[in-house]
């Protein structure tokens, strides 16, 4: 059997590429070494963490936020087993959904470890050791990423006491104390989950800000909100050691600028210091596929590697490690392979942190515009002045819009607030169409909605908001 496309890896990049390619009439095979499809995102990443973020937020609200709405209930008790069962059921529904899509689109799904033998040939080693070779005109590397660990520090992750995100969604009990190494997305999302469930959480972060790379105003406000929720922060602190200790594990860190070392103990330590491209055992060296200086598969503007007929998408190539970026690359590449003109607009990729409140961002930050010397204007609107937010006791946060000073074209949007991850998309769509803040401010928004704050921020960008 010879395929038009063989895709190695069935995460959001690989499975979406497969479905799109099949929809466009190509004969497709996917190769997956996990027992279930969907990659890190569906099995141990985005999807299970969102199940736990939602459930833990409900638990927290039941314990803290109901009486102000006139609902008096006794303090809730946690059934962590059932919460984990909800998470597992959510994962199962999603990974089964991918299996269904493969069947529906007549995609051959082959279980086993895929290795590129040469352009056009992939060997698949099944769990029982049997090897089969499949042939295809095109090969797509969509193998994703793995935990990077702490640069320069030897850490033994046992997923019980010293954990990565994988252990962080599967703890059997709520630890009394949790140290999170890394104040990025994973650290703050999973830190929030265990903090809401009762753990005392301390974040140790190398940079002088959490969520490095986000708009500075957003990360500062957000840190204050998390501190109010009870999370402690040690910023500008470089972790130099993580090892098992009497109480569980201990973390040693020192001020980035130099100074005395500090050691903290905790029942559990979460390592959330980034991810790296997964390329091991793929036969890339033998096949002559080049990597860049950061160990990512090197591609051109059309996802082509240096070897004809071999392509790569998702976390294994450059760009943000985000499921939706990988999906869009999967679609674009499938279109290219089918003779169309697939394209990804990297300027408009939203990013969301699913804490409470949520943080959502698209396009440029104020810091990026300053550094690039772009003349810009800013419009802001707080949820404290939004009627719907008041009615829902969700007044924490604000919307910030950045537009070109001369043309008014929107260059970036940043939202801190309940439902930010949904609201960001109207700014993203506007930016895709090259829209201005006036376009957004003059678009009718339903009342009363949280999204009216987006409209008001746009009004504030090109003239003045009404409700402030
Ligand atoms: P990250 O890159 O977001 O954050 C890692 C943090 O660790 C950085 O702030 C870094 O300064 C810090 N760090 C590194 N070495 C350190 C040291 N020695 N001491 C103290 N701090 C140190 O990585 P994270 O959170 O592990 O996430 C990995 C990837 O997964 C990211 O690319 C992220 O975008 C993606 N992801 C996205 C999610 C979302 O979109 N909601 C959710 C979860 C993950």
Automatic annotation (TrEMBL):
Gene3D superfamilies: 3.30.390.30, FAD/NAD(P)-binding domain. The keyword Nucleotide-binding applies. The active site is at 447 (proton acceptor). GO terms for biological process: 2-oxoglutarate metabolic process; cellular respiration. NAD(+) binds at residues 182-189, 205, 274. It holds the Pfam family Pyr_redox_2. PROSITE patterns: PYRIDINE_REDOX_1. NCBIfam families: lipoamide_DH. This is Dihydrolipoyl dehydrogenase. It comes from Rhizobium chutanense. The lineage of its organism: Bacteria, Pseudomonadati, Pseudomonadota, Alphaproteobacteria, Hyphomicrobiales.
